[in-house]
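Long-time lurker. I teach an intro course on protein structure, and each term I like to show students one example going from raw sequence to a predicted 3D structure in token notation. This year I'd like something fresh instead of my usual example. Would anyone be willing to generate the tokens for the chain below so I can use it in lecture? Attribution to the forum is fine with me.
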Amino acid sequence: MFVFMCVGCGARLTTPLSQVALPVHAHQKYGNGSQLPVLMESGTFAVDPEPWGPPWRTWEEIDQDEAAARGIYAPVYALSDGAPGAIVIAPGDTRGTVLIPERGGGYCCGLDGADGPNMACEACGLPVASRIDDCSLWQAVWLAPNAVRRHPVDDAEAAPLSWAELMTEGKGTPPFEPIATWGSRLGSDQWWSWSPQWEAAAGQALAHLLAASEGRPVTVPSGLIAEVFQRALDALLPAGPSARPGVLAGPGRPAPDADADILLVPAHPQTGETWTPAGPAASAYPVPLPFGVWLWLAFPEPHLPVPASGGMPDGVLRDNPPALRPPHLFRADSGTFQHTLVRLPAVRSPWLRQILENLTSHMHARLF
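-- Reply from a regular --
Happy to contribute to a lecture. Here you go:
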């Protein structure tokens, strides 16, 4: 457990926090005017290893060798020249900070941090963080890495949960949820949608699936996983008889076949490391999925269909209504897809670069 302190005066700025992996959807922009919840669970923090936030440089101002050294292998609109290592926490976990009114960038529906740190240490006035709560953005506080330092609050170093412990204690992320517009009254202007977390997870995984395909068709198992990926795979990859299967694998699942070369596997929510099988399948291409999304795909929570009234006799299930479904087909998050794909060396292949260059057309076709 750590607390974060101001480098200027040593004042304590957070409650005690434990580190987890940076969520895939950390920088997601979802819809237009949508009200998104808090990004981080209370009591946790994550670190973004890449620079993020102002100042920015457009792609035309960046040498391609410099971009490649930063792990960017295809053009992007702009790259941040901010300091790497920003720390993201839940807004309710901050202490001893005040907003800086003249740095209130955003104001469509809230703050977006576009003007740099908009929160200061209450004790000494040093700008230390950016509060993000504008529409279509995940609510969070991003601590500036050069303005804070972490301080351990105990000597015990807790080990991450094992995969077996995660299977017992972890929770699946439902694929559907209600989305509200910012500032609407409770119960109004809401619609049932695919989960933004699922769309971001699919954007990341789809980029890896395309890279793993090497330009050949890819198939995934039928059911929800096919609903999420197969339409985009069929549209973006050529048709042919020699399709490469993508197999859902992970703890509690049957061991993948020795000839499986694309595995959709969970990423550990605390460390970010992907699950790796034992044996020959360990050399397969691992396509990472956030643990909660993977858990729902691997072990979906069933609808309980047996109706009952009055008391609940032994062996009778509740009559829960089926979950509502979105009125449109699934679409992966385009921003997360692009962010992931430009960081994969495979994007240098002409056929994969063409997919990236035609991303706007694919968005108009509602693949994203």
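Some talking points for your students: The first helix runs from residue 64 to 69. The chain is about 20% helix and 20% strand.
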